[in-house]
Amino acid sequence: MRCDRLWTNARLATLAAGRPGLGLVEAGVVAALDGRIAYAGSADEAPAFEAAETVDCEGRWITPGLIDPHTHLIYGGDRAGEFEQRLAGASYEEIARAGGGIVSTMRATRAASQAQLVETALPRLDALIAEGATTVEVKSGYGLSSADELKSLRAARDLSARRPVRIRATLLAAHALPPEFAGDADGYIDLVCREIIPAAAAEGLADAVDAFCETIGFTPAQTRRVFEAARANGLPVKLHAEQLSNQHGAALAAGFGALSADHLEYLDAAGIEAMAAAGTVATLLPGAYYFVRETQAPPIAALRAHGVAMALATDCNPGTSPLTSLLLTMNMAATLFRLTVDECLAGVTREAARALGLLAEIGTLEAGKACDLAIWDVERPAELVYRMGFNPLHARVWSGR
């Protein structure tokens, strides 16, 4: 059997359905053909391959390429000053209401050109790639006008032309209320629904639509309008839900078959049940929980009990999670949220793919999927969750290359 490249003498964490735990294979091989996995499994059961190139992994572990399903990589400026304010006792909500927060980043983002947004995002993307990320979701949400939201989405698309990585672009125009719409949130949602979403869909700039349903964001009724507009334009939805309070956004999102509901510190039983019924993924963001010093953790035990899939993401953003490490994200999820090693690794591979609607394409080591691999210098997969400030990546493979 012909293949382009064959990785031998490897230990695999396949994450494949039907295998227990991480789907471990102690003596495994992976074969790639035309950018896709032709085989991933036991060396003893593998067909005889004629490989153009063979790579001896020398006993290293191979996992699927890591996936970050929630980032805000595209933005101008930074908010280190607000970090100092929080250290002095100001809350996230107080800073936002005083004109800081998302609106301060909006001003810097509007002032930047598309090329400048790309150039400032690349180091953040490179940090993720350096730890084995092969797919990254990138949201807009700091432009908050038609021109600037579309500019941000174009910048997100441009990242995939600059680096060997799969980018999923999400329109988050309903992130905050821009100053020109002060006191008229419904008027801004009109703009989002009637102009920004249709324009992004027509230009093919967005893979999904997101919103911030929160006391300092948008109401459930306004969020519903955003979701209806997304549906009318053929785009799936996601939601920032229950981060600071319980607005019942997760249940609303589940009612629209949302790919994911994210944050979820204040998620209630009804929201969990709705997510379970809809197959909506819970994307947990421990970096934001840590950075804003939240004290109420997401209801992990209840999510487990109801079989809700849990993904993990950096939530890389300038205000509440300036984090560009999926390895540290896993450690935070284990220590702060008490996720298991298996849950953490699944959260940045299989379940992250599910949260992006890409599980048929990526997220596990299975024949037919894109050959996205991370090869690690570790003795056991738990090291990827256990260590802090240490990157054991040996090699990264994207689409077989």
Features:
alpha/beta; eight-stranded parallel sheet; 15 strands; 15 helices; 401 residues; seven-stranded mixed sheet; globular
What does this structure look like?
This protein is α/β, with parallel strands linked by helices and 401 residues long. It is built from 15 helices and 15 strands. Strands 6-7-8-9-10-11-12-13 form an 8-stranded parallel sheet. Strands 1, 2, 3, 4, 5, 14 and 15 form a 7-stranded mixed sheet that branches. α4 (114-130) packs across α5 (146-162). The model has no long low-confidence stretch (mean pLDDT 96).
Short description:
The protein is α/β, with parallel strands linked by helices. Helices cover 37% and strands 22% of the residues.
Percentage of residues in DSSP E strands: 15-25%
> In which order are the strands of the major sheet placed?
6-7-8-9-10-11-12-13
In the predicted model, the low-confidence regions spanning at least 5 consecutive residues are: none
Instruction: Tell me the series of helices and strands, N- to C-terminal.
Output: EEEEEEHHHHEHEHEHEHEHEHHEHHHEHE
Tally of helical runs: 15
Overall number of strands: 15
The helix-and-strand class reads: alpha/beta
Radius of gyration: 21 Å
Task: Specify the oligomeric state.
Answer: single chain
Task: Give the helix/strand layout.
Layout: E1 2-13, E2 24-33, E3 36-42, E4 50-56, E5 61-64, E6 66-68, H1 80-87, H2 92-97, H3 102-111, H4 114-130, E7 133-139, H5 146-162, E8 166-174, H6 185-202, E9 208-213, H7 220-232, E10 238-241, H8 249-255, E11 260-263, H9 269-278, E12 281-284, H10 286-291, H11 300-305, E13 310-312, H12 326-337, H13 341-347, H14 350-355, E14 373-376, H15 383-386, E15 393-397
Helix pairs in contact: 4-5, 5-6, 6-7, 8-9, 12-13
